[in-house]
Amino acid sequence: MRGPALALMGIGGPLLVMMLLWQWWTAPVPMADTAAPSPLTAQTRPAAPEPSRAPPPPPYVEPAALMPNHLGKTIDDWVERFKLPALESLSEPADAQAARLLVERDYERAVRAYDRLMLKRPSDPEVLLGKAVALSGAGRYEDAVPLFERLLEMEPDNIGARFDFAVAQMRAGRLDAAEKSLREIIAIQPDDERSLFNLAVLLQSQGKYQDAMTLWRELTDRRVDIAKVTRALFHRGECAMALKDPGEAETCFLNVLQYDNTDLQAWANLGIARAAGGRLRPAIAALRQALLLNQNYVPALNQMAYVYAELYRENESVDGAKAAIEYCEKSLTIDPAQPNIQELRIALSDFADPVPSFLR
Q1: Which residues of the chain have pLDDT under 50?
Q2: Are 150 and 166 spatial neighbours (Cβ–Cβ below 8 Å)?
């Protein structure tokens, strides 16, 4: 199983946090850890027999790789200046028609309109930018990249066009080139938050977790815009999970939930982080909250199965094995194509009978 991808390219809905980050810690947890057995119990209880099958996998699962996608916002920003009455102020009717098509998100027709304009003004920066954005909106990123390159040769200091260029490169799969473009923007404008954010996500998607974490910490520690901080904080938590730092990840998701306690992915990730740190009972509490929000959320169902399987391994709890099987079966009912969950279900099936282990 993999953790939530936080939705590739769109990454998972707006996430907000209410206070300055990393200066507080949410102390209470929903449930206490399981008490350790007494010394007497530990001395008198017979050792559990070795299972006949491979033990269940550990509860920790790395999050899926992310990928930036700010194209929609890029187009929104760019066409904002062409909304009426700005459209009517354009001197050429053909320019107004092309811009109107962008505003209406009729990208293929906008491409054709800018094609006609380019026949007359092939080196006009505004026409080049308009066609490049229209091509990007139509998903034709490879075609958009050369136009951005031409524009930036004429206007190397055009930060907005350079960012649009980086987005097109990312969407075209030119990740190294996109990283270079974003770093060029940051070299000119070190506080350009959208470039910092996209660079962090890009680095994280390539497995460069330490470099990404440096940027996430900068974004979350120094910014006061709650919406932007919370989105960065969520990714910081996933990056911490990938770096095997469940304590920092738990802090991140708790802070996200402090503002919005209906964030399904944050609750699920909090459960994963707690399980990775060996805090199984609090992990169950967080995962239950996720399932209260969506009882069919497969990542939370799977993580519940792993956590209860781990409880069975630690405490020889038949109830834990049964609970793990129930979560496996519900998850497989929703999505049967999960080999890991199928294997876990099989591995637990021999141990879910009511006979105590010392009587077997």
Answers
A1: 1-90, 354-360
A2: no
